[in-house]
Amino acid sequence: MKRTELREHIFRVLFGIEFCEPEELSEQLELYFEELEGARERDLNYIREKTRRIAEVKDEIDTLLNTHTTGWKTSRMNKADLTILRLAVYEMKWDEDVPTGVAIDEAVELAKKYSSDDGPAFINAVLAKLAK
């Protein structure tokens, strides 16, 4: 799979676990993988590992988001936007393999697909503040 496709799968898993208990992550990943046809083992491992890493620093990511948004704390954000932001912030701050510009562009593309009409602009604005 290409990185864009892997990122979308990570987004879907992270979005799904938003409605579960943290200790259910492994089970939710396995259930997701059962429905994912044609994925190679290395792709599954990449999704599993990156999802786990993001989940580990979720509170730190939320703190960053809360300090860089005005009037939009994470508790008020819709779940799709929040999940996209968490993924992008992780890539910007913790994943040295992903350039900041790529993380922002990919987040905006995810927002075009999974968020409201205002989502892409919101995502871009938040991430631009974090990139400074």
Descriptive report:
There is one protein chain. The protein is mostly helical and 132 residues long. It has one domain (3-131): N-utilizing Substance Protein B Homolog, Chain A (Orthogonal Bundle). Helices cover 72% and strands 0% of the residues. It has seven helices and no strands. The protein is globular, with a radius of gyration of 14 Å. The model has no long low-confidence stretch (mean pLDDT 93).
Could you write a compact summary of the structure shown?
With 132 residues, this protein is mainly α.
Keywords:
132 residues, mainly alpha, N-utilizing Substance Protein B Homolog, Chain A, globular
List the helices and strands and how they pair.
Blueprint: H1 3-17, H2 25-35, H3 41-56, H4 58-67, H5 79-93, H6 100-114, H7 119-131
Helix pairs in contact: 1-3, 1-5, 4-5, 5-6, 5-7, 6-7
Largest sheet: none
* Mean of pLDDT: 93
CATH topology: N-utilizing Substance Protein B Homolog, Chain A
Note the run of SSEs as H and E.
HHHHHHH
Q: What's the structural domain tally?
A: 1
**What gross morphology would you assign?**
globular
What structural class do helix, strand and pairing data support? mainly alpha
The CATH H-level superfamily is: NusB-like
Q: What percent strand?
A: under 5%
Whole-number radius of gyration?
14 Å
In the CATH scheme, the class would be Mainly Alpha
**Count of DSSP E strands?**
0
CATH architecture descriptor: Orthogonal Bundle
